[in-house]
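User: My instructor asked us to take a sequence, write out its structure as tokens, and then describe one feature of it. I'm not sure where to start. Here is the sequence I was given:
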Amino acid sequence: MSANGAAVEYRDTAPDAAAFKALYDGTGWGERPVEDFARALAGSWAQCAAWQDGRLLGFARVISDGCLHAYINEMIVQPEVQGMGIGRELLLRLLARCQAQGIRDIQLFAAAGKSGFYRALGFEPRPDNAPGMQYDNRAPQNI
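Assistant: Let's start with the prediction itself. The structure tokens for your sequence are:
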């Protein structure tokens, strides 16, 4: 698999926090301090990064208990190389890692407009009557 003619290298190790932040910033996911990215990477169970000529093209990571549940947290690919199979390869590698550990409950949140990508790789939307909610930290706190 290649992008722009050069081979893409996939590594099962995390990039450094600065490269992770640059990828985040470059895709418009919002700016945060580099320290936040270092802490986030430290909490990952599995990860896969796509590199080309020393540049981070894409990154995906999993948060998991390593047995029962896994959550695909980030799936980020530089906009100019989206559609070249990089995200697909990142996700397939992480799914294989989860399945090798016997994890059957693998979840994720899809970015707006991206659900078709995940459906093609075996993900299905949760039914309306299924358990699960998302915390909204903007909601009033009545605790």
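For the description part of your assignment, you could build on this observation: Strands lie at 2-3, 6-7, 9-11, 46-52, 55-64, 69-77, 105-108. Try explaining in your own words what that tells you about the chain.
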